[in-house]
Amino acid sequence: MKITEHIKKANGKSLFSFEIIPPKKGNNIQDLYNNIDPLMEFNPPFIDVTTSREEYVYIDKGEGLLDRKITRMRPGTLGICAAIKHKYDVDTVPHVLCGGFTKEETEYLLVDCHYLGINNVMALRGDAMSHQKYFEPSKNGNHFAKDLVTQIKDLNCGKYLHDVIEASNKADFCIGVAGYPEKHLESPSLQTDLKRLKEKVDAGADYVVTQMFFDNQKYFEFVAAAKNAGIHVPIIPGIKPIAVRRHLQLLPQVFKIDLPEALITDIESCKTNKEVRLVGIEWAIQQSKELLAAGVPVLHYYSMGKSDNIQAIASELF
Ligand code: FAD
To answer: Of the four listed, 88, 149, 227, 245, which is most buried by Cβ atoms within 10 Å?
Structure first.
């Protein structure tokens, strides 16, 4: 079922969902199942699976020589989506990226999704590779998420690349895109970023999932500003419980987001990461309660590997 249909069917009740990261290659899918199992009692109608783009690894050839090879450390998003869908009978949402993929590769991926009955996708640009200062699209790849949304919408009309029309076998994807309550880090202003978000929705995006935020006011203001800008699709809040002390520096550095003073003080008073994890859980519970009271369509959690904290949060709320 489409994410938008799940939301409609819930009839105003907030749903629970979460995002997982595929294991690094060489690891077993059972570890992933062990993390998903305790969350299934909260009836997530869908689970997102992230995609990682390619990266360089350096092989030591001896005598001071390094060989640079390109690799994908976490392949298998679509396979994992299919496995989870089959095992738990739940909808899965593969994240589809512009970066690192040609339009042809994207088309093959979408065709496979269609065959597998996976009809929700998250359309994202992806970030620059670690050695790049700025994002560069692949040769013959999509540049912005909006372009990827257009390619997916074309498939929904039976329009394949190179002007091939297969109107008898149209796809029917429900498309999610990313939104940034504190603006995307490359955007010159929140208003400009909202204009870009509107372009994604006008191109055919059906719903938005936000970047993590720790101050609900930022989300409420973002939703109001989006409505003002003419964006009328569901905006799902993304919530990440702080798990380790290092997040105090890492999250602002990577995502250019602010942390509230009260949260910083609570974390700084912790003596161990175990205590930090408890503070993160409690903060996320309070955040979630306020968002539930405001009637958000879904509470979507970033699980980042270990799910015990998401389980602790969900058991207080669902
Ligand atoms: P876009 O919407 O294309 O925007 C990128 C930037 O370009 C923004 O600053 C925007 O304002 C600007 N822009 C857009 N259109 C134009 C234009 N026409 N001209 C000039 N500027 C323009 N990353 C991963 O690698 N894998 C994942 O699985 C993943 N999942 C994510 C899930 C969520 C919910 C979120 C919020 C992010 C996720 N990301 C993921 C991170 C995402 O890929 C990065 O934030 C990326 O830098 C931007 O992606 P986007 O889809 O928002 O890009």
So the answer is: 149
